[in-house]
Amino acid sequence: MAPFFPWIYPSLFFSSLFIFHELVPSAALRNYPENEVTLLDSMSAPGDLEWLAYPAEGWEEISVMDERNTPMRTYQVCNVMEANQNNWLRTRHIRREGAQRVYIEIKFTLRDCNSLPGVPGTCKETFNMFYHESNNANLWFIKESQYVKIDTIAADESFTQVDVGDRVMKLNTEVRDISNLSKTGFYLAFQDLGACIALVSVRIFYKKCPLTVLNLATFPDTITGGDSALVEVQGACVNASEEHETPRMYCSADGGWLVPIGRCVCKPGYEEHKGVCQPCRPGSYKASATDAYCSKCPPHSSSHQEKASECVCEPGFYLAESDPRSMACTRPPSAPRNPISSVNETCVTLEWSPPSDTGGRGDVTYNLFCRKCSGDGRKCVPCGSAVHFVPRQFGVAVAAVLVTDLQPHSNYSFTVESQNGVSDLSPSPRGEVTVNVTTSQTVSVVLKERRSKDSVTLAWQEPDRPSGGVVEYEVIYYEKNQREQNYTVLKTRSHMMTVDGLKPGTTYVFRVRARTEGGYGTYGGEIELETSHEDILAIGDPNQVTILVVSIAGGIVLLIFLVACFVVSGRHCGYIKAKQDPDEEKMQFQHGRVKLPGSRTYIHPHTYEDPNQAIRDFAKEIDASSIRIERVIGAGEFGEVCSGRLRLQGKREIYVAIKSLKAGYSDKQRRDFLSEASIMGQFDHPNIIRLEGVVTRCKPVMIITEFMENGSLDTFLKKHDGQFTVIQLVGMLRGIASGMKYLSDMGYVHRDLAARNILVNSNLVCKVSDFGLSRVLEDDPEAAYTTRGGKIPIRWTSPEAIAYRKFTSASDVWSYGIVMWEVVSYGERPYWEMSNQDVIKAIDEGYRLPAPMDCPVVLHQLMLSCWEKSRSDRPKFDIIVTTLDKLIRNPASLRELANSSVCRQDPTTPEVSVTTVEEWLEAIKMGQYKESFSSAGYVTLDSVLYISASELGKMGVTLAGHQKKILSSVQSLSTQGTQVQV
Ligand code: AMP
Description:
Blueprint: H1 8-16, H2 20-23, E1 36-41, E2 52-54, E3 60-65, E4 71-78, E5 87-90, E6 94-95, E7 102-110, E8 126-134, E9 148-154, E10 172-178, E11 185-192, E12 196-209, E13 212-214, E14 217-219, E15 222-223, E16 231-234, E17 236-237, E18 241-251, E19 257-266, E20 270-273, E21 276-279, E22 284-285, E23 295-296, E24 301-302, E25 312-313, E26 337-344, E27 347-353, E28 365-373, E29 380-382, E30 388-390, E31 400-404, E32 411-419, E33 432-438, E34 446-451, E35 455-460, E36 470-479, E37 488-492, E38 496-500, E39 507-516, E40 519-520, E41 527-530, H3 542-578, H4 582-591, H5 611-618, E42 627-635, E43 640-646, E44 654-660, H6 667-680, E45 691-695, E46 702-706, H7 713-719, H8 726-745, E47 758-760, E48 766-768, H9 775-779, E49 784-785, E50 791-792, H10 799-804, H11 809-824, H12 836-844, H13 857-866, H14 877-889, H15 900-904, E51 911-913, H16 917-923, H17 930-935, H18 941-944, H19 949-954, H20 960-976, E52 979-981
Antiparallel strand pairs: 1-12, 2-5, 3-4, 4-12, 5-11, 6-11, 7-10, 7-12, 8-9, 8-11, 12-15, 13-14, 14-17, 16-18, 18-19, 20-21, 22-23, 24-25, 26-27, 27-31, 28-29, 28-32, 30-31, 32-33, 34-35, 35-38, 36-37, 36-39, 39-40, 39-41, 42-43, 43-44, 44-46, 45-46, 47-48, 49-50, 51-52
Bound molecules: adenosine monophosphate.
């Protein structure tokens, strides 16, 4: 061994520092991440660090030059030869600048004690790091007890040899953090207890979420919170923008921005361009903040300046107040065209064609003005209120009006004026057209009649002073009181007419009117005439009776036929319903009116043409403002999963999990993301994760579910390995089976049942989750491609589902068996590290997972039945639930362990063979209780198998240790027969 010269170690040590600059870039060259704010960097301190070292022979500040010849300050200590070292090095007061959590990054080298020949056993290879919070920046002394320990630091790479030429020295980097700081600053201290250390660099920093602009809102530099809490930050709208929905984001503990909510929008006259609001150019405009972009001015309008929120109409063009600003400017319509009148005695129908120019609008209406004129038409006066217009006089939307109550044989002049929504804004006169009409003479009345049994002859006089000659007469007749049903109109130029083909002995009503050139006159009078009588039905006439009977019988038959048709058609409807296609079922279900027989049925969101309808049907829309996001708890396929609180009106606040859809998603991603909600929303069971609702009306789109405090089952079990009783484990399995029974009753096949997709709440209640449509394909890291191209979580999936995608509730039962195995083995990976291919092959050859450690026989048997090759041999979920219920009610049935002889036997413990109770008690060194056993009637080994602790107590075996020893030996007697460990 080389002689030891204590004084050479420091010098060797220090000489090595000359190569530090190769390991640590000089401060000028170091680039720190954008979200780290450095509070102290020993490498870039301009002068001496002036850290306090005590005692004086401990830490020493040594300056070395970096490659730019700038001095670098380092601290070293290497008192390895002396025992009882306690060397402290303390920084000056470091202000925390508002940070609650700061990080300390140290770079150091540490000598390996073994490499120092002759050093005593007191040589250390670690040192301690402490801090002391204080508002006082000038503390000259801090007691050891006032420090809070951060950590003991050891080197990952202690160097054994200082060989500058070989460059063997390695630099260690360690980062620690201190949380929840509250005073103005703190002192950092390093305690050396006898190691050989060179502290090359100490950097103290905190993390912030750097200033960012998103959705037109500026989010300032934000210091991250203490612990891992999220800090909610409200953004400020950028210039020329305004809040659409309050912009918010969360600053996470590691300095990243999360879950942007809300946004700002550019004010009217501005549009968004690369994250800022730019003024609209001349010729364009933006009327509302919610419009995305500036638009070109509509036809017949223009804007001459920037920032226009509206365009100005050209002269002669207008926009009505209620017109949208995006509409082209319009003008009043031209005049109505082609007026025609048809006079009907003292009524006139006026009709016209719409204007050739509607002014660019669809709201043209008409006003009518009536004037009564003298015979020569020279002098006209307004008609007054006695004249009526149907439908109305002003604002008529159709191009026709009936004018009534005119005076007979008079001249009228009607003016029809057109107008539209902007006519009132225009000073020019409105377009109009005039039509003159003369009303006609009233017609004469019927004068003469002649009747027979089937005809009537009418005669009438010509009207007085007909306006223009009579063109024709019109005779209208109908059976009395039957006008609505049936009437006949006949025309003649003569003033006489014989109407025949009438029914005998029937009363008819006749009316006559004349049509002159001026139009129809009014009906002159009304006359009722009865055709002459004739026996139409003689009761004694056998033919007539036959006709009557046949008619009545026919009527009855017809009636019966109609009723039958009605009934049959009703039945037919029923039949159609029974054969409803899925869509029809969907309608029935979604409106909740008709319940399908039995339980409710799951409806696949793909049966909806519009996936948004599925969401509306099955998920409640939640207002984003009722959600408070608190921290990130996981990562889903579509974005972060956070926890938070939900307060709905009139309800108490509850903890929820919030899955959000990350920005930049496609339509398909949005659909797939939300499909989970439209599936989950159909379920209502204590062992199925409950959907609280969705946020779809604003971004980010979110799915809100109940919060499961203990997260996913696989991680939870791994964390609590061996900590639950078998009854607790069976309770969890019972819950999962019950949830799966509910799903299979609803006709839902999960396809990815695995412990990672079960969530656990604070009461250890397990709930089935993960219902997304794409989840098996995209989400599950366990899913692997099969030869048929599908992606399947092989280890959890039944052979028929792997081979030909036969996914059924029976394949879910297979997966359930695997979950049982996962639970009992506390999260062990099924088939351990076997490859997927080997698993498929082994299963095909009949291999099944063995019972996990300490697994009750009955549970392993249940697992094996779930893994029956033929899916019809597997138990249904209701049987699984009942089986587990029985086990819970009878815990003794769980006592027998499947592999106790394999797993629980201590190989070093010898075994003896026993045949009697006495031998057995002797063998386990409990011979003192032989009497007690025989007097209590336990004379055969079989009889002791069911003994309990309370019975042992009654027999006088009161010591807990003795009871335990006897009972555990009874347990092994039951599994291994007469072999007893002693
Ligand atoms: P998922 O996208 O559903 O697989 O969720 C990803 C992770 O977020 C899960 O593994 C859980 O750790 C967590 N998580 C999801 N939903 C909830 C919830 N309702 N309660 C608690 N943690 C959840």
